[in-house]
## 1
Amino acid sequence: MSSGTPHTPQIPVVVLAGFLGAGKTTLLNHLLHNSGGSRIGVVVNDFGAIEIDALAVAGALGDSTVSLGNGCLCCAVDVGELDEYLGKLARSPSGIDVIVIEASGLAEPQELVRMVLASEQPEVVYGGLVEVVDAAEFGQTRERHPEIDRHLALADLVVVNKTDRAEDVEAVLRTVREAADGAAVVRAKHGRVDPEFLFDCRPSQERVGQLSFDDVDLYGDGDGSGGEHGGGDEQRAEGNGHGGHLHAGYESVSFASARAMDPRRLMRFLDERPEGLYRIKGYVDFGAYDPRNRYLVHAVGRFLRFYPEPWGRQEERGTALVLIGAGIDAAGLEKELAGCVSGTPGEADEHGMWGVLRYVQGEDDADLVTPEDDADLVTPEDDADLVTPEDEAELVAPQE
Ligand SMILES: Nc1nc2c(ncn2[C@@H]2O[C@H](COP(=O)(O)OP(=O)(O)OP(=O)(O)O)[C@@H](O)[C@H]2O)c(=O)[nH]1
């Protein structure tokens, strides 16, 4: 366990968790751009072999980002390695004020909390668990993964994100509050919460008292290592003590191509993607169809968006995608993607990009982020948006 002296203020380590695509990276990027003077050290963990999340936050931080690749932190990564990185970040000469660990969307938060509690670095202290919830997908995700309630029960702050896309935000908030067991619940669009929530979300006295190793050692393997999965992209958890983990049965496919993709073929692939393929992220090179931009792609459930952004001057052109799903035919998907590579990369016809542009942010006003949305930034003082247990009476009363 960590132990500080009165002369060495400890650096809080906040664990940022939440199901696939809930908006963890978006929230983290918001924090990085709105942290005021605070310096945030980041540890990113991806499920797929290509580290898309690390790429998405690295630009903002440079050497204060550490990436722990392929596999859920809760199982595949050596605890010692994480601890070593926490120590390095904590002793960074630039002076880190807080460390945020962005867990993979399939990680078990209690395992991560346990790892941080077990840290041998005297400079760091567990700073709380933040769970991000996708309000639009919450009902379906919870149906498939009832264990989400267990994650919410451990959280110190729950960010109910994507309230712009949810049909019944109030219903989601009610369910979340019930499961969150007294933790603060805050609603957000595009992860825009006041950073003070997170840096202040250190477990309250009461919750520190409640949270012990016994609480988080739900699998009884007690050594803190959480075991290990086999190599490769496959993260099947059967037979190694992690069958109850969120990622049991999930597989990831990593696809990379130095040759440009054909937009029509890729759109056909995306439009016909199988039900179990829950998450796709990465970026695409459409070659002559748009030589200036690469297209970031995000699919979460049936939701799909492309975000064009200019290639860097020296940036190597290419496509990198990670696909995550349950019950998917990994080899088949890889083959299908290979079939989307353009046969004539130097050629482009006029209408080829139409299918892609339908999914570019801004084409759909509902998802368009405008400067006015900044008014939606939730601050701790904003009582209307911070839902606390005390609000319960107010919210419940009208229905009684
Ligand atoms: N409409 C809408 N989209 C959002 C919001 N927050 C995030 N997104 C989008 O949701 C997609 C997934 O967001 P990420 O931040 O990458 O999610 P994540 O939790 O880091 O994903 P994983 O690491 O794969 O688990 C991206 O396309 C985001 O732009 C929101 O509040 N509203």
## 2
Amino acid sequence: MSFLTLDHVSHHYFSKNSYTKALDDINLSIKEGEFVALLGPSGCGKSTILSIIAGIMKQTAGNVLLQQKTIKDSELAIGYMLQQDYLFPWKTIISNVLLGPKISNNKSEKMERKALKLLAEVGLSEVADAFPSSLSGGMRQRAALVRTLINDPKILLLDEPFSALDYQTKLKLEDLVSSLLKSFNKTTILVTHDIGEAIAMSDRIFIMNANPGAIAKVFEVPIELRNETPFLVRRHPKFQLIFDKIWDELDKKEAESVDQKAVSPINGTKS
Ligand SMILES: Nc1ncnc2c1ncn2[C@@H]1O[C@H](COP(=O)(O)OP(=O)(O)OP(=O)(O)O)[C@@H](O)[C@H]1O
């Protein structure tokens, strides 16, 4: 049964002199606890999809359903983690984590215990009372993850959360995030440009087209890979096979999109 459904979702951006057909008839059905990735060329609408699911913007057409119902309180239902951590520099790590509960009048001793437990799970107990400036990039992203998880969101949206980190930190964080989200059975959508990362972390990968943004193909990651940690997935013999298939698909799509743009641009300027 579908947990999160995008049902014929389309989106157009309009401004005074131009319009962009950013999404064209997106249909997605994601199961509870599933980890999926959106992969595609720049401008294919990955961030637009996340913003619509998060309730930051309303789609031009179609429906977004959580457990078959329209999402009512998207702030509580959806957690968002971005490339930048957006921690407040004047607040300690624990205060940053507890900011959401404080704003929603939900700060309590129980919440503080939960925050400390989560910080311990990501190896940040020692720095709970430190300020963000004294932490490394990877530690700050771990704090940002805890801040996202404290509200117990039903869906987690990860928008290139590792792309600003050095390679080693990124691989370590992928392992940590993957095991934590699996243990909480969180339904997660990851946006990334990194094919390896998408394979290493996901159950399914949606390849997108640009102009207009659409789902072009869906790859199921083989079960043998899904049972490994992201770090070990990259060493699995089946990793290169699926990597090559996705690479070819993206290459093909890129060539098609260049041709299509040259012949008949869908996005353009109003006359
Ligand atoms: N606020 C906006 N106004 C007008 N057009 C927009 C706006 N935001 C995005 N677009 C356009 O919509 C399309 C999809 O953009 P979006 O940012 O969702 O793509 P993306 O796949 O996330 O790109 P990237 O990988 O570069 O982050 C692009 O053509 C983009 O130029």
